[in-house]
Design brief:
- By secondary structure, the chain is an all-alpha fold.
- The chain contains eight helices and no strands.
- It has one domain.
- Helix content is 78%, strand content 0%.
- The two termini are 18 Å apart.
């Protein structure tokens, strides 16, 4: 639960920074604009599409898969409600860096509990397991693909979005090493 809360808090700090959101939110924005549905509904629909991609990867769901959507959303909403967007660029850039770090640490905590990854993290760990590529490489490739697709669909991209796309893979890898003893082969 702590890992999921940190994850959502980090996502919330990205929103509050007003410098760009995570690539998956860019995708949801773009998909929502193209289909006429809200970003929340688009996020849910994308989650189901991503879960369908788990089938050929033989990825298993768990309690963490369900809790991910609920707890992360609550933490994100609480952060946005409690933290005002600061005026200074330096503080906003700090929010981006702290947000990315919290998402990475939160991912490391909740993934090493082995209660089931969230839809997007399950895609990452499934591709990592099936391809043998590092978590950081798989995550960066996923984030950049989603970012590009979301941008082409009309989602908003900012400096924080690019920083997240490039930083989250290495951040999650480092968190897994620190929290889980470096083992990523059993995710």
């Amino acid at each position: 639960m702590a890992g999921l809360w940190l994850f959502g808090t980090g996502e919330g700090l990205l929103v509050v920074s007003a410098l760009g959101v995570s690539p998956w939110t860019v995708l949801a924005e773009g998909a929502g604009r193209r289909t006429g549905i809200g970003v929340g509904a688009a996020t849910i629909a994308i989650s189901f599409v991503v879960l369908a991609l788990w089938i050929p990867l033989r990825q298993r769901t768990g309690l963490g898969t369900v809790l991910n959507a609920v707890v992360v959303g609550l933490a994100l909403a609480a952060t946005v409600a409690l933290v005002a967007t600061p005026g200074g660029l330096a503080v906003r850039l700090l929010l981006v860096a702290v947000g990315i770090a919290l998402v990475a640490v939160g991912s490391g905590l909740y993934l090493t509990c082995r209660l089931g990854p969230g839809p997007r993290d399950g895609l990452m760990t499934g591709l990592h397991r099936r391809t043998g590529r590092s978590v950081r490489l798989v995550r960066v490739c996923l984030e950049l693909t989603v970012l590009g697709t979301g941008f082409l669909l009309g989602g908003t991209v900012g400096l924080g979005t690019v920083a997240f796309a490039l930083g989250i893979g290495p951040g999650v890898q480092a968190a897994l090493v620190l929290v889980g003893g470096g083992r990523t082969d059993d995710l």
